[in-house]
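step: validate -> pass
step: tokenize input -> pass
step: predict -> running
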Amino acid sequence: FARFEATQPLVAEQVSRVLGRPLDETALALGYFLTVSVWLAFDRMFGARLLPVNVDAWHAAEAALRLEEDLRAQHGDEPIEYDDIVCSLQPGVMQFVHEHVDAALDVLSRSEADGTIDVDVDDVHAVYRFLLTEVVALSHAVALGERANASGELLA
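step: predict -> pass
step: emit ->
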């Protein structure tokens, strides 16, 4: 985590902002694990080509997500959602994220079946929303090299 903070200070600051508020324990653990795992995947794949995310890039990723949410609210019949777009950018990373989010929500399903609810779905959604922003911001922080895959796709 210390290396994450040193190499991606803005993303680490945003992680602290999102995960520093009162959250369900499962959502909190999921958030820390997945934010660092996503960064580590980018770091391992791109190394020195992964530049620090700057403020403008972070705000652009957040604005894109907000715009999609606004469009979805106005036109709920559209076939493509923002997370579908992020999945097309980084299908391997997003598959990893989805597997872990689904596992956390599976705990909720089992808990509901036996009468106890242990996972706050809204908190898990907040973490997932943050992860979408992180994936987009990190995707755009990769400097293209001479032989780089122009898509910047990971774990394909």
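step: describe -> DSSP finds seven helices and no strands in the chain.
step: cleanup -> pass
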